Amino acid sequence: MTDPPKAILRLASHKDTTKRLQSLGVCHRCLIRIAGETNPTVLRNASSIMALHMAILSSDKKVDNLDGDPGKNGVYDVADVCPCCFGLLQESFTSLAFLTRIQHHVQQNGYTLRTFWCSLTAPNGADIRSRIFDEYWDESAEKISGRLAVKDAWKAVVTPVLTGFFGTRWVGHEGLEINLAVENAQMDGKECEALTAKYPQSFQEKRGPDGKMKRIVTRHSLEKVLASMRSYDFNLLFPFPPRPLTVPSTLVQITCIPCSVFVAGRYLKYSRTVSQTPWFIEEERKGDASVEEMICARLEAAFQAESSRFMASGREDIDVLMLGEGRPFGVELIGAKYAGLTELEMAKVEVQINESHKDIEVKYLSVVERSDMTIIKTGEEDKTKTYSALCSMRELVTPEDLRQINELTTLQIKQKTPVRVLHRRANAERLRRVFDFSAEPIAGKPHHFRLTMKTQAGTYVKEFIHSDFGRTAPSVSALLRKEVECEELDVLAVDLVWPPGRSAFSLN
Questions:
Q1: How far apart are CA 111 and CA 100, in angstroms?
Q2: Catalytic site residue 67?
Q3: Which of 69, 317, 359, 372 is catalytic?
Q4: Is 338 left (phi over 0), alpha (psi -120 to 50) or beta?
Q5: Which end of the chain is more exposed for a tag (fewer CB within 10 A), N or C?
Q6: Rounded-to-integer distance, Cα 502 and Cα 357, Å
Q7: What's the half-sphere exposure (Cβ side, CA atoms, 13 Å) at 238?
Q8: CB-count burial class (<10 Å; 0-12, 13-18, 19+) for 398
Q9: Contacts of 18-21 spanning 24+ positions with Cβ under 8 A
Q10: Statement: the pTM of the whole predicted model exceeds 0.85
Q11: pLDDT computed for residue 77 by the predictor
Q12: Is residue 323 a contact partner of residue 389, using CB atoms and an 8 Å limit?
């Protein structure tokens, strides 16, 4: 026989306390939880483990069977409800039949899962009731530290079954939340009323439907008050034992709360009348459409999401094209029923977006983790971008003009907030780097040249070319001592490895 768990040894060492708890109908799982057991395997198999080690639990070689009836041991009727866990750790809430109900509800409502977790909305005063039994053990037997709460013990018992049903992991508070609302007609909140009377300042007062003011007990306020209460004060307010429970607890509702799904990709923009995000000035729409709307509408439909939030690594002006491998973007799909799509399904979404909108193209759509989304916004000023600008001058473009530009290596420029955005951005001065210059003539256009350059992210490129009334220095105009305008601007590259996992060379 294997050595008994420590909780079993504690129960055996304090037989009077153990028998007192048993006489009140405390279930096996609650007994070993109260005695400090945290091992999920032991909690799941509490009855069989207690039966296995019955010799050390009882001098007459028998162990009270809390799953039996009074005719067999005179202690506990199976119809009774554990007064400590209000039945949550008993068969009615841990059996395969009960857990299958949860599985069927999730599947029948069309949810798919990458990860999931369960939350419990317990009857009024559930935490108070379990603490009454915990305090009794600590006072009459031995003090236990790190004891599991009833809800956590339930999760330890059911986790392997539910993960097996869904074929995925139970991860903290990530993924689909499955909330179970449990009620018990005899748990009417009198314990909470005692707390609000004792500590009224700890509970917010609100007007009820009847027009009367009353103290509202929230989970947060209840936990805060209980954590601050000393054992002496708690035991005075809530003496042992609490009222017995003879009415079974019931599951009144299963609610699935979809998680956010995060999709990464890169977009190209081929129109100079499409903005990145919806653009309005004084309630008047500017531009024909937006990249955000064209992408998010399809993704919301594919994942059956309630809404979405678009983000990108920087933005181009409405009249600027986004070419090359595209700009990195991410979409948070809020309340998505589908937690993920296969590679083939994601490829179909790409095709749908690209065939529906000639002005944009998306690439590399993939589901990523929430933590990956920080990559888009981190290190903004360290990223570099490559631009191609169609520049024009009143004078003829000379070989000397092109030579001066091509001999440049790296420029550090000072830029004040451009005049064109001063109405919505603070007037500030920024230092930026511009490098890798290449200027080429354009056949048939003697007053134009093509300028390609790399810049530090956040550089105002148009202003670097025409100087913005001297607010950017140095500028191309200042270097050539001629008025130079930017007629068209294209983004050729944004140097960010995105989506995560794609090799850097695949984006060249």
A1: 15
A2: no
A3: 317
A4: beta
A5: N
A6: 25
A7: 27
A8: middle
A9: 18/57, 19/64, 20/140, 21/84, 21/133, 21/136, 21/137
A10: no
A11: 37
A12: no
